């Protein structure tokens, strides 16, 4: 019998083909769902905060859509149980890395990802200005964060990440540009360092949680550190400790890559500096590294020994009276005790140098490691 015109004869599907097809559909659905939802281990899920008002350094898991949010829990914290030791890795101590950021540098982020300390114990905190450069940096930072926290293996994802924006009228920002030449003009230092101090304090007070053991201040332009930076600094068990910040550059005289000191805010005080300060008015600030203010302080930047030099020890310590913020490791208890970054002249010092003086007044000492180097981006 003839078939009607246009009729299609269906062939019975093979069972193997159906099985493969179903498996493929299930795989695609699993991939789409898992790519948008971080797959954390049970240990991480158990430690996640149950409410958005929980401490900011605890990762937060969103409730399912349509679920009624429970009231915030009443939680008691015994800070005596928070350890800050020379063996943070063995004791599973939580690290808070804080970075004021005006511009995004990919090398900074890449270096951050290379840190060997377990990322599940690291919380990142950033504060960025509401400027054109700050808006661009925020977008770039958010892009890298989204990729790391959703697409990277779990071991590379950080415990939690917090981004703050400065609540300041853009017209009040002390500098129109973040170019290195403008940033380091002496005439710009008081306004610039005061704004930096306010940003640091806002970031610190908004992110320091009850389980934080150490706070690592890391400059947004620090692009190279040893992967073991956290463990190396913590092993000294000092309240405040800082490495030496250098800068790699091309030496046109030797036609080779070379390095030079960068951070001159790590210093040992001098009689000359104290005498200069004694003659200053109450609102004047003494800045380091300027010919107009020859302090004759001992700068840690110039205490570094060359590679191979006799007696060179990476972990040699020197006491400091002033510190910089390029890479600064602080026991959380120092900040909890009230040591912050003065945005005003504090004994004629301001920001990180003022922080060192304030911490010392509270009984906390600072040390530096002249031969242990981190590297700042060379503009």
From TrEMBL:
Gene3D superfamilies: Spore Coat Polysaccharide Biosynthesis Protein SpsA, Chain A. Signal peptide: none annotated. It comes from the Eukaryota. It holds the Pfam family Anp1. Belongs to the ANP1/MMN9/VAN1 family. This is Mannan polymerase complexes MNN9 subunit. It comes from Humicola insolens.
């Amino acid at each position: 019998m003839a078939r009607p015109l246009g009729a299609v004869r269906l062939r019975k599907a093979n069972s193997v083909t159906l099985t493969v097809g179903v498996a493929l559909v299930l795989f695609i659905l699993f991939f789409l769902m898992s790519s948008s939802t971080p797959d954390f281990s049970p240990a991480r899920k158990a430690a996640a905060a149950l409410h958005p008002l929980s401490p900011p350094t605890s990762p937060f898991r969103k409730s399912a859509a349509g679920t009624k949010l429970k009231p915030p829990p009443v939680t008691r914290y015994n800070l005596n149980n928070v350890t800050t030791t020379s063996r943070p890795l063995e004791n599973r101590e939580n690290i808070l890395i804080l970075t004021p950021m005006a511009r995004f540098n990919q090398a900074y982020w890449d270096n951050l990802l290379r840190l060997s300390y377990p990322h599940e114990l690291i919380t990142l905190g950033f504060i960025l200005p509401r400027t054109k450069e700050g808006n661009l940096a925020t977008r770039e930072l958010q892009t890298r964060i989204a990729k790391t926290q959703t697409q990277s293996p779990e071991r590379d994802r950080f415990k939690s990440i917090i981004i703050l924006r400065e609540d300041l009228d853009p017209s009040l920002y002390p500098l129109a540009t973040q170019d290195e030449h403008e940033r380091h003009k002496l005439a710009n230092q008081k306004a610039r360092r005061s704004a930096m101090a306010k940003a640091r304090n806002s970031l610190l007070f908004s992110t320091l949680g009850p389980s934080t053991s150490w706070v690592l201040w890391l400059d947004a332009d620090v692009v190279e550190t040893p992967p073991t930076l956290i463990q190396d600094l913590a092993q000294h068990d000092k309240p405040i400790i800082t490495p030496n910040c250098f800068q790699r550059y091309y030496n046109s005289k030797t036609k080779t890559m070379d390095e030079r000191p960068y951070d001159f805010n790590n210093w040992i005080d001098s009689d000359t500096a104290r005498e200069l300060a004694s003659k200053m008015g109450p609102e004047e600030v003494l800045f380091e590294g300027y010919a107009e203010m020859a302090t004759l302080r001992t700068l840690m930047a110039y205490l570094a020994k060359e590679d191979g030099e006799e007696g060179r020890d990476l972990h040699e310590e020197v006491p400091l009276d002033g510190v910089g913020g390029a890479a600064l490791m602080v026991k959380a208890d120092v900040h909890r005790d009230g040591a912050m970054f003065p945005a005003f002249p504090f004994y004629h010092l301001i920001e990180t140098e003022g922080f060192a003086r304030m911490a010392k007044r509270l009984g906390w000492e600072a040390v530096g490691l002249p031969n242990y180097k981190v590297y700042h981006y060379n503009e």
